[in-house]
Amino acid sequence: SAHRNDDGGLRPTEEPPSSDSGSNAGPLAGRRAIVTGGASGIGAACARELAAQGAYVVVADRDAEGAGVVAKEIKGEAWAVDLLDTAALEELSLDADILVNNAGIQVVQPIEQFDPADFRRIHTLMLEVPFLLMRAALPSMYAKGFGRIINVSSVHGLRASPFKAAYVSAKHGLEGLSKVAALEGGPHGVTSNCVNPGYVRTPLVENQIADQARLHGISEDEVLERIMLTESAVKRLVEPAEVGSLVAWLASDQAGMVTGASYTMDGGWSAR
Ligand code: NAD
To answer: Compositional bias (Basic and acidic residues) spans (predicted)?
Structure first.
């Protein structure tokens, strides 16, 4: 797994292999990426796409086993880390060209019943941790004159939804943080952007669909049609790989003038 070297930078335990690794060909060859929450869902898809385009990827997740599986598949490395342990992150320096802030959780409750501990936990993981990882990664990006920060926000970073007080406010905060990083990083060749998916087909959303189907006594297709996709123009869920390909493009050299932006991928939901 990843460890801190003598000068405090995070490096792989072994140098990326030159012959069979994904890091020797493709538009992202030679780039080092860190993807938080990379063991599952959108994060795993981002890790796969970045690796497919040639990057060497560190899969950071508290799910050590899941991170190991993805890392092995893409010939990257796993970093087993509970990102809620923020004290450790304050001391960290990261050697990365591409930072994907993706790890996230959801709690759905009306405000008056919302557990303050859940609120703080969500804000820590989804707003403070991206700040701490930017803080850890920016010095080496500035030194190289290149960096790509990609923040996995949500349509709920731009528009609200009832019962998601912590999630909506943390994602709105992430939008602001991303823009500040864009302004500070611009002169140093560092871009910072958000991607804003609608419902993506991840384990999290598939469970929600199954729950709703049981609750309403309807089929899972009917849940999609009648509940989740009523406002969407493209009548299907977003696939994780689609988010991954947008993230990989934002990480590319061609996207150097794209910064401080937020890229909605919601099948037209927010156009309505
Ligand atoms: P997921 O549950 O499939 O994956 C989240 C990953 O984050 C998991 O591997 C989990 O172990 C990891 N994680 C959670 N807490 C952690 C911690 N404390 N330390 C380290 N790792 C931790 O979720 P997903 O649906 O892929 O969501 C990923 C991101 O995409 C989140 O930020 C989410 O808000 C955002 N998003 C999801 C959707 C959707 O419909 N699924 C839509 C818009 C935005």
So the answer is: 1-14
